[in-house]
Q: What sequence folds into this?
């Protein structure tokens, strides 16, 4: 299988590359700058992939060339609005950046990869916990992160409808809490609702669980949202 993973330099993206490479898949690892850990995997690295730029579409296309792609994981993501909860003090530039990376970055990645997808290919969006996006979240705030992740869910639901006739399946997967830089930064602020990083799965373990949710995806279950426990939502 040929897989394209964004945000491959560290965290969950690096975990996905690690597991895929180990099981013999060909990995196109898209990142801004390759980390030593990523280089050590000896996968096919595509560097300078800045998902906020429209030029990324051409860069990714050049990186994957004419190879058929069986799996795209739109994983690159940021959470910078966790420490500015109040609507009056909201940093709109930070919110804009979250949209650019989390929502529009995924859209650009899909546009780039689409010519290389074929019947049986899968597109995965890394979403977040359902209860923070739903109607009655446990707490307010994190506007930019949650709104951009809600946007990615909507994108996925719509894309699933459009691509089903072409035999391409789409799924949103929440990995749950994973011990990465993203979670550690939130936890460092004293945020009580975030699970402690050291009590959360490491990125490789979380990637293994995610891949089981990817492998089970079929055209019948396209457009579904699922979390790391298998629970569906929306
Ligand atoms: N960790 C959790 O508990 C958790 C829970 C729910 C969902 N998620 C989701 O999981 C995904 C991966 O996050 P993570 O926890 O692994 O965080 P992470 O360790 O901070 O990794 C984030 C990745 O996204 C990349 N990225 C950020 N901005 C980018 C940009 N503008 N262009 C291209 N790449 C960019 C980073 O690249 P650089 O190294 O170049 O910055 C990095 O590779 C995100 O979508 C996140 O929302 C994580």
A:
């Amino acid at each position: 299988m040929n897989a394209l993973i964004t945000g491959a330099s560290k965290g969950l993206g690096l975990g996905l590359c690690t597991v895929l490479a180990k099981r013999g898949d060909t990995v196109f690892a898209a990142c801004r700058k390759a980390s030593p850990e990523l280089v050590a995997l000896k996968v096919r690295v595509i560097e300078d992939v800045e998902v906020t730029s429209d030029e990324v579409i051409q860069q990714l296309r050049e990186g994957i060339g004419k190879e058929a792609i069986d799996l795209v994981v739109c994983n690159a993501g940021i959470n910078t609005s966790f420490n500015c909860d109040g609507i009056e003090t909201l940093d709109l530039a930070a919110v804009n950046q979250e949209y650019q990376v989390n929502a529009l970055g995924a859209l650009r990645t899909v546009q780039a990869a689409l010519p290389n997808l074929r019947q049986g290919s899968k597109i995965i969006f890394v979403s977040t916990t359902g209860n923070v996006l739903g109607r009655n979240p446990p707490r307010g705030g994190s506007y930019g992160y949650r709104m951009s992740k809600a946007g990615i869910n909507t994108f996925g639901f719509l894309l699933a409808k459009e691509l089903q006739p072409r035999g391409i399946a789409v799924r949103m997967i929440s990995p749950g809490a994973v011990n990465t830089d993203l979670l550690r930064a939130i936890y460092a602020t004293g945020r009580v609702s975030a699970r402690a990083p050291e009590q959360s799965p490491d990125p490789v373990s979380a990637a293994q669980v995610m891949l089981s949710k990817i492998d089970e995806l079929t055209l019948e279950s396209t457009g579904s949202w699922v979390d790391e426990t298998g629970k569906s939502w929306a």
The longest helix spans residues 92-113. The pocket of NAP is lined by residues 7, 9-13, 31-33, 49-52, 75-79, 101, 126, 128, 174-175, 177-178, 180-183 (CB under 6 Å). The chain has one domain: 2-227. The beta strands are 2-6, 26-30, 44-46, 69-74, 117-126, 169-174, 224-227.
